[in-house]
């Protein structure tokens, strides 16, 4: 059994949907003179409560296809009465209709009931807490499901929460059902009861054996950024089809007692934990981080820590922005109130002043009263806004430098490695792609020689290069021999760059979203 709740603002469209758009049968009505006048009379009653924005409640009662033949009029009436008792709608206006043929929503015969949530005599709503504010209110949906579930259990009908067909979280997802229909892949969640029995064993070895008999296995999941060198840090487990790794379900979906932490607590004393039973091939190696180089892991973990701080900054910024919006609205009201007060006071001053002196009196009032008070209010409001400034947005390079300055040796080592390796990458890129000659015009001097206008900037750039590259300066000073000239200076070859660092560099550039050269300059 399924009970679906929909709320609306008007009864006219609802009445048209129930009685005009498809074949129907009027089952009954209450509190209205006739089904034809139901919409108009319900609207009149709802108009007595203009504060109620959604007075119309549309309820759909539907049964499973296997129960269509069992649902007689007496059972439909019993189900409707149980719903009205739960939601305190027994005295409210109602129009009940049956659609005998299937439609797109229910795929079978079903009933509709249109209720007016405004009481026809007291104009009161149902008891507080008995009705949700919107059609997707979880409390109202849960209570409606409970009514349907108790009714189905009492009469032996199909229950939505049948444990042999769904997991503890509710229905099997639609994408799993479609995959089963199209590809013949039966969802793992269908065997919920057998999986629960397997996971209820006293130790992990027997649990794995029982699941293997069902053609299933356990696949651990890990927190983001955790590698095998960081030790065992399993975050959860999935029950996976051994023949298809894409067909899985979380163990916690069967209930809290089947989460990884709960299963670890419930294993027999002295029995090995999951990481020891699965072995290294399934623990640690299943994490993407475990296959990466250690420097990359350190870099990634620090980035994760930085992202947490950035997330905290965004949350605080949102809080400050909301406070600022409220304060700006209050400031606008204060300015409006002051303007009205000044206008009233100016009128009082002008009442006792001759008409010919009104311009002078207005000017004096503005200079002596209005302008000082507006200025004082503006200063006061500006001072309040200054206290709501946002903190400076964290920057990755500055944040890492602050960690290193606070005594974090790993951060300092990472910062040194990044600086040296990035500098080498930049030097290699500069040597591999020399700057193309510019199309500079030449100016003839008095002695007839030609000099490019870009010659001086090139000289300054060379000096700057030596200044920024002390290794190049030392190399030139130690290798140069004045008697042999510049030919004696061996070339400065590009440094070796490993592939692991190139991957690190690419990830860092992607995270920062900017130019690598500019970020290191």
Automatic annotation (TrEMBL):
MobA/VirD2-like nuclease domain span: 19-122
The segment annotated Disordered runs over: 429-521
Q: Origin organism of this chain?
A: Sphingomonas kaistensis
| Compositional bias segments (type: Basic and acidic residues) | 456-472
Write the lineage as a comma-separated list: Bacteria, Pseudomonadati, Pseudomonadota, Alphaproteobacteria, Sphingomonadales
**This protein's name:** MobA/VirD2-like nuclease domain-containing protein
């Amino acid at each position: 059994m399924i009970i679906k709740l929909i709320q609306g603002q008007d009864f006219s469209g609802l009445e048209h949907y129930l009685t005009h758009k498809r074949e129907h049968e009027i089952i009954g009505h209450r509190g209205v003179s006739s089904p034809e006048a139901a919409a108009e009379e319900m609207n009149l009653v709802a108009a007595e409560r203009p504060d109620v924005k959604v007075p119309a409640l549309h309820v759909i009662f539907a049964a499973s296809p296997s129960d269509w033949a069992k649902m007689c009029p007496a059972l439909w009436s019993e189900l409707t009465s149980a719903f009205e008792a739960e939601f305190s709608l027994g005295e409210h206006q109602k129009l009940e209709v049956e659609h005998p043929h299937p439609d797109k929503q229910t795929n079978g015969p079903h009933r509709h009931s249109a209720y007016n949530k405004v009481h026809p005599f007291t104009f009161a709503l149902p008891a507080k807490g008995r009705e949700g504010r919107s059609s997707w209110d979880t409390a109202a949906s849960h209570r409606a499901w409970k009514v349907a579930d108790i009714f189905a259990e009492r009469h032996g009908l199909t229950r939505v929460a049948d444990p042999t067909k769904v997991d503890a979280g509710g229905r099997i997802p639609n994408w799993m059902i479609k995959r089963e229909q199209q590809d013949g892949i039966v969802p793992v969640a269908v065997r919920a009861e057998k999986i629960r029995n397997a996971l209820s064993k006293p130790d992990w070895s027997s649990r794995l054996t029982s699941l293997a008999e069902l053609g299933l296995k356990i696949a651990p999941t890990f927190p983001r950024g955790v590698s095998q060198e960081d030790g065992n840090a399993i975050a959860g487990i999935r029950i996976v089809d051994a023949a298809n790794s894409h067909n899985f379900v979380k163990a916690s979906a069967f209930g809290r007692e089947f989460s990884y932490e709960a299963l670890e607590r419930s294993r027999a004393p002295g029995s090995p934990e999951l990481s020891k039973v699965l072995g290294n091939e399934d623990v640690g190696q299943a994490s993407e981080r475990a296959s990466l180089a250690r420097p990359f892991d350190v870099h990634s973990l620090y980035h994760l820590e930085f992202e947490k701080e950035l997330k905290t900054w965004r949350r605080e910024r949102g809080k400050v922005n909301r406070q600022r919006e409220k304060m700006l609205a209050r400031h606008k009201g204060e300015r409006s109130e002051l303007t009205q007060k000044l206008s009233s006071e100016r009128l009082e001053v002008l009442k006792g002043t001759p008409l010919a002196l009104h311009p002078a009196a207005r000017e004096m009032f503005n200079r002596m009263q209005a302008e000082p008070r507006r200025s004082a209010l503006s200063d006061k409001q500006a001072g309040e806004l200054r206290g709501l400034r946002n903190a400076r947005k964290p920057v990755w390079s500055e944040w890492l430098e602050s960690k290193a300055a606070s005594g974090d040796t790993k951060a300092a080592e990472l910062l040194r490695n990044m600086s040296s390796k990035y500098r080498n990458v930049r030097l290699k890129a500069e040597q591999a792609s020399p700057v193309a000659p510019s199309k500079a015009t030449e100016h003839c001097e008095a002695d007839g020689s030609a000099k490019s206008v870009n010659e001086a900037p090139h000289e300054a750039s060379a000096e700057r290069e030596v200044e920024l590259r002390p290794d190049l300066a030392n190399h030139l000073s130690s290798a140069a021999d004045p008697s042999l000239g510049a030919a004696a200076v061996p070339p400065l070859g590009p440094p070796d760059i490993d592939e692991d660092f190139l991957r690190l560099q690419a990830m860092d550039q992607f995270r920062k979203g900017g130019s690598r050269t500019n970020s290191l300059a």
